[in-house]
């Protein structure tokens, strides 16, 4: 395993790291590892709104209109 040294951190960041570590009952070093693993190795789940927002805006609204004609077959009967 590799070692990582992070220099010149703002004191507020260090305090927040230590607070989070205490809340999770682990050392600041273990908390730092967990944060890095979460941020870099675990894919973030997207919300439905984010997924819908990524759908490209193509076509015209009328291209997606549902037509109701008498000859349409009811697939649920």
How is this structure best described in words?
This protein is mostly helical and about 80 residues long. The chain has a domain at about 10-55. It is about 45% helix and about 0% strand. The radius of gyration is 26 Å and the shape is elongated. The termini are far apart.
Give the C-alpha Rg.
26 Å
How many H/I helices?
A: 3
Task: Please tell me what the overall shape is.
Answer: elongated
Measured distance between first and last alpha carbons: 62 Å
Low-confidence stretches: none
The structure class reads mainly alpha
Query: Could you tell me the strand content as a percent range?
Result: under 5%
Q: H/E order of the elements? A: HHH
Q: What kind of sheet is the major sheet?
A: none
Q: TL;DR of this structure?
A:
This protein has helices spanning 11-23, 28-41, 48-53. α1 packs across α2 (28-41). It has three helices and no strands.
List the helices and strands and how they pair.
Blueprint lengths: L10 H13 L4 H14 L6 H6 L24
Helix pairs in contact: 1-2
What keywords describe this structure?
77 residues, mainly alpha, 3 helices
